[in-house]
TrEMBL record:
Its main location: membrane. Residues 1-642 form the Major facilitator superfamily (MFS) profile domain. It comes from Eptatretus burgeri. This is Solute carrier organic anion transporter family member. Signal peptide: none annotated. Residues 446-494 form the Kazal-like domain. Pfam families: OATP. One of its GO terms (molecular function) is sodium-independent organic anion transmembrane transporter activity. SUPFAM superfamilies: Kazal-type serine protease inhibitors (SSF100895), MFS general substrate transporter (SSF103473). One of its GO terms (biological process) is prostaglandin transport.
């Protein structure tokens, strides 16, 4: 979808990266307050409110298409002229104004370009603002949703449920890519023009699909499912704990009928050597509550007063410091941030990479990502949760697991640097123009101009690539020396046997050898993704099991805050900036002389592009591996201090509460017996 936006609104890779990061920026702004105060509120309703905000932002994302001009005119002739205009052709003008200016003054064109630039800037800002709004709406979903689930399952079962949840979350992108591939088959202006009049198909590089349709559908679905969240209670009912075998007096009571809980003879006496009293009805109330499943846990230090908002705000810095002072939590979260950065940068430009390296269409690239890459990530996350539950991995085991799968993922991804193609021969850029135009004293030096186009007055750079009949790619119809709109007479194209003025077609010349690398690339990538994503559930469990239970929701907020601040937001921007550095030809646009508003790159150095794209991801994954090793070192040094996994869960606290009740009766021997059994 990003490549479609790139061509629709003439955006650079860095601008696309900012759109990708806008969601994370919006998610970053309120996440600490939502995770801290939301844990004390009605979490399902807060998630529902966030879903409605997401629906509004998704709807606004599609708005620029309806505020902008049509991408193409309506008739065949105008479509052809819009693809290759008269100004793009070779113009032999010896006198008069410059070839590109057909009016005495060029102010009309400058005014048009200026208006177009301003319109595109406003549309771009709408895209960024809409994604920020979507990010704000998504804020309650993860920290409150994860804590809500973790509060209603046991510690042993939570990795399995988190694995399912992560897998379902990745099914969303899978459906999104499939919808993208479906809607890009529909012409972008299908609502406004008769598409039967188009003289090109979706395989043509000029084709732009209906990118906006998926956002309208998702907005409606978000609003619908958000309504269901308002039907959930504040907390889900839990099954009462199964009673454990008790000593004889308590067991006898526990099995008594409801109608006569103390029997006809009054209070139950305590038998045994230390029986100095009886158990009254008041004393037995906690046991009765436990049997009815209505026991509420309390502590002697629990306060009935609700702290004010100011008190809670003052407590945030101290609780933040307490959480971040745990080196296991900090290293796990930082490693997760680095992994997130790798995934964000790779996924943002994977479709663009597949299109450039292997000559795929945007539709087919989205299908490959949706049917192969994203399901591999789902499988990896699910396997990680299943293996943790199957082997009952503790913190040390989970740490070792993350190290092993990270090493495997990096090892499998490394060869991908060499799976791809080069830029291919481009006349005037990395290849000579055909030799029929060589000077008598030697070859004409490599450059954009040659004797065949020297009098054409071509712009310094261009964006409408042509593939000549000689197999060379030309920067524009002008540089190819084309004098007709149908590209049937291009003076620089060698037709063979000394024939001058051969034909050309739009687009870069394909490289058949590139297709042979495609299947091995996808196969290795999917295996690497499976191993890479299988450490998500173990690392997530490591982080939430290293903090106290009462700080769990806030710790989740910190995790998502740092992952966006250090991962999701900067990674696409840095990756997009690095990819822009590999561009060989930028289009000539108004304002591009100053380095701004350059639009979409016309031609990349594909070899450098591949090394930057894959190498940046590998570097981040290596850094994450070092942090996982640090976690292992800290756990081996002091395992009990940095992990809370051995702390009692709610059921254990219930049983200890009953034990404490027996102790208060005054029978020391009976208390010790109950403690041993429970």
């Amino acid at each position: 979808m990003l490549t479609t936006l790139e061509r629709r609104f003439s955006l650079s890779s860095m601008q696309l990266g900012l759109i990708s990061s806008s969601f994370e920026i919006g998610n970053l702004l309120p996440i600490l307050f939502v995770s801290y105060f939301g844990a004390r509120g009605h979490r399902p309703r807060l998630i529902g409110c966030g879903g409605i905000i997401m629906a509004l932002g998704t709807l606004l994302t599609a708005l620029p298409e309806f505020l902008s001009h049509q991408y193409q005119p309506q008739t065949k002739q105008s479509l052809r002229l819009s693809a290759i205009s008269q100004q793009d052709l070779c113009q032999h003008n010896e006198t008069g104004p410059p070839w590109w200016d057909t009016t005495p003054v060029s102010s009309a064109r400058e005014c048009h370009d200026g208006n177009l630039k301003g319109t595109q800037t406003r549309l771009y800002l709408i895209l960024v603002g809409a994604q920020i709004l979507v990010g704000i709406g998504a804020t309650p979903v993860q920290p409150l949703g994860f804590s809500f689930i973790d509060d209603h399952v046991t510690k042993k079962e939570s990795p399995f449920y988190f694995g399912i949840l992560f897998t379902i979350m990745l099914l969303g992108p899978t459906v999104g890519f499939m919808l993208g591939s479906l809607f890009t088959r529909i012409y972008v202006d299908a609502l406004f023009i008769d598409t039967s009049q188009l003289d090109f198909t979706m395989d043509d590089p000029r084709w732009i699909g209906a990118w906006w349709a998926g956002f309208l559908l998702c907005a409606a679905m978000l609003f619908l499912f958000s309504m269901f969240m308002f039907g959930f209670p504040r907390s889900l009912p839990t099954a009462p704990p199964s009673p454990s075998p008790l000593p004889t007096p308590m067991q006898n009571y526990y099995s008594m009928p409801e109608a006569e809980p103390h029997g006809p003879a009054g209070p139950l006496p305590i038998s045994g050597p230390a029986s100095a009293g009886t158990i009254s009805e008041t004393d037995l109330e906690p046991v009765q509550m436990m049997r009815n499943g209505s026991l509420t846990l309390t502590t002697e230090t629990e306060s009935t007063e609700t702290p004010s908002v100011c008190d809670q705000l003052r407590a945030i810095p101290g609780e933040t410091l307490a959480i971040l002072s745990n080196p296991v939590f900090t290293c796990v979260v930082l490693s997760g941030c680095v992994e997130v950065a790798a995934v964000a940068s790779f996924s943002s430009f994977l479709s663009k990479f597949l299109e450039s390296q292997f000559g795929l269409t945007a539709t087919f690239a989205n299908q490959i990502i949706g049917l192969a890459v994203v399901p591999s990530a789902c499988l990896g996350i699910f396997l990680g949760g299943v293996l943790m539950r199957w082997f009952s991995l503790n913190s040390l085991g989970a740490s070792r697991f993350t190290i092993i799968v990270s090493i495997l993922s990096i090892s499998i991804m490394t060869p991908l640097i060499y799976f791809g193609c080069g830029t291919g021969p481009v006349a005037g850029l990395n290849s000579h123009y055909p030799t029929v135009y060589n000077l008598s004293n030697g070859e004409w030096p490599i450059g954009e101009q040659a004797p065949c186009n020297m009098e054409c007055g071509c712009e310094s750079s261009a964006s409408k690539l042509l593939c000549g009949a000689d197999g060379l790619t030309y920067l524009s119809p002008c540089y190819a020396g084309c004098i007709h709109l149908n590209l049937s007479m291009c003076l620089c194209v060698d037709g063979g046997a000394g024939e001058l003025g051969a034909s050309a077609v739009s687009g870069k010349c394909p490289n058949p050898e590139c297709q042979s690398f495609f299947l091995p690339f996808i196969g290795l990538l999917c295996v690497s993704v499976i191993f890479g994503f299988s450490n998500q559930t173990p690392s997530f469990m490591l982080s939430i099991r290293s903090v106290k239970a009462e700080l769990k929701s806030y710790a989740l907020g910190l995790i998502f805050l740092l992952s966006r601040l250090l991962g999701f937001i900067p990674a696409p921007l840095i990756s997009g900036w690095a990819i822009d550095l590999t561009c060989l030809v930028w289009p000539e646009r108004c304002g591009s002389a100053s380095g701004n508003n350059r639009g979409a790159c016309a031609l990349y150095d594909y070899t450098t592009f591949r090394k930057v794209f894959v190498g940046f991801t590998l570097g981040l994954k290596l850094l994450a591996l070092c942090l996982y090793v640090s976690v292992q070192v800290f756990l081996l040094a002091r395992p009990g201090r940095y992990s809370m996994e051995d702390k009692p869960d709610e059921l254990t606290l219930v049983r200890r509460r009953v034990s404490k009740f027996v102790y208060n009766v005054g029978d020391q021997e009976l208390c010790e017996t109950v403690e041993t059994v429970l």
